[in-house]
Amino acid sequence: MKSCSLSPLFRMSSDSAPLWYILHTHISSVERGQITVSGSILVIRGKTFFTFKFIIPRDKTCQDVYDTLVTLSQCIEELPAFCYKESHEDDWSIISMYDDYARLGVPNDKWILSNFNEGYAVNITSYPEKLCVPRTAALSVLIGSSKFRSRGRLPVLSYLHRENGASICRCSQPLTGFNSRCGADEDLMHHVLKTNPRSGQLFIVDTRPKINAMANKAVGKGFEDENNYSDVRYHFLPVENIHAMRSSLNKMLESKYHGLENSGWMKHIRSLLETALFIAESVKSGVTVVVHCSDGWDRTPQTISLASIMLDPYYRTLHGFQTLIEKEWLKFGHKFSDRCGHIFQPDSNSKEIAPIFTQFLDCVWQLMVQFPQAFGFNEHYLLTVHDHVYSCQFGNFLCNCDKERAEMQLTERTYSFWGYVSRATHEFLNPVYDATSSSFLKPDLRPSNIRWVIN
């Protein structure tokens, strides 16, 4: 049997007990416990919030099971997605970010889809090859801005409000250090501002705590100086980094209901929703917003995606929500493989693992609780998405960016999750959905309204 077997099987000791199947890709950690009079203890913790504790009569057997589990999936091609034999390439074309741009009216007289990153010619490897940028921005401006941004991630369009012309753009932090500046980057921001002639100012939302952004200046990075960017207002709307989120989740799972408040998880959820609401209300009022964190692939997709859901009912439909994930998370390089720990490497540390996408789904669930008729999909769908982000049964969520997925030929070698959903749509529809229920969602973010989702 190949090592990418889908479900290692554990059976409870009693013949009358249920049989439990655990996907090995769902295993977060395996721990050896103390030896007891009944046997050796083995604890398995899961990425989808389960914990199993086994008492194995023989210590050697316990060690053999432990050794087997910690050596599973050390190579991407050993993951379950590569075990499937049939090809469903058509399933990969069900969702397209460029169809979404067309729905938003792009390209138009303000915005253009540019091929300047085609073949990753300018080495922006974590962005898609075709990018939506201001029509008036010259190629030299785009390339110059890219060289001044962390990982080359220059400001590009994410969402366009068709009625008022305001937009949401995304990027990474600039390489300002303590006093550096870049004329091309300043020009590009001005071009972004001019795509919205109804507004005379541009908001830049930095989702990092200000002290963290200041610390980045010491390593040649940092944030924009309002004195160098005309008609720009800078807003720090702090959301903690991946290390704080990982720690918070671990504390939450350890405490569960007891001491939940001390984990800080609900505070982080509220911070994300508050930042997203600020972005959404700014765009609704006619102001264009540029959003970034450090590299622009964690807090940036979280807040932009949530703001888009608040602004646009389309993203609350099943198809629209999938499009949002495809665009903001997959195409723009959220590091699913690193953040979800898809590849087990015993000698590596786990500092890249963080529940960023889990937090996003939690925030969506918070909105669903407050606006139960506004979403075309149900809670079961959110749980299914979360499950398969970690299951590695589909190619969509493998690797860290679109370029890596193309190099692995995942559209030819694996199934698409969107195809699976399209054949099981009836399971995921919300029976009380009302497409006319609300055009703009403004959640009540008082602490008492932020709910505990895991049960």
Give a verbal description of the structure.
The chain has 455 residues and is α/β, with parallel strands linked by helices. It folds into 2 domains: 9-72, PH-domain like, CATH 2.30.29.30; 92-449, Protein-Tyrosine Phosphatase, Chain A (Alpha-Beta Complex). Helix content is 36%, strand content 13%. It is built from 17 helices and 12 strands. α8 crosses α12 (356-370). It is globular and about 75 Å long. It starts with 8 loop residues before the first strand and ends in a 27-residue tail after the last helix. GO terms for molecular function: phosphatidylinositol-3,5-bisphosphate phosphatase activity; phosphatidylinositol-3-phosphate phosphatase activity.
Provide the structure class: alpha/beta
CATH architecture of the largest domain: Alpha-Beta Complex
**Euclidean distance between termini CA atoms:** 36 Å
**Pattern of helices and strands:** EEEEEHHEEHEEHEHEHHHEHHHHHHHHH
The biggest beta sheet, please?
A: 5 strands, mixed
Number of strands: 12
Percent helix among the residues? Answer: 25-40%
Quick overview of this protein structure:
By secondary structure, the chain is of the alpha/beta class.
Topology:
Elements lengths: L8 E3 L7 E3 L5 E9 L4 E7 L4 E6 L2 H12 L26 H7 L7 E4 L16 E4 L4 H9 L8 E5 L6 E4 L12 H12 L7 E5 L3 H8 L14 E5 L5 H14 L4 H4 L1 H20 L3 E5 L6 H13 L6 H14 L4 H5 L15 H15 L8 H13 L10 H6 L2 H4 L3 H6 L2 H4 L27
Parallel strand pairs: 9-12, 10-11, 10-12
Antiparallel strand pairs: 1-2, 3-4, 4-5, 6-7, 8-9
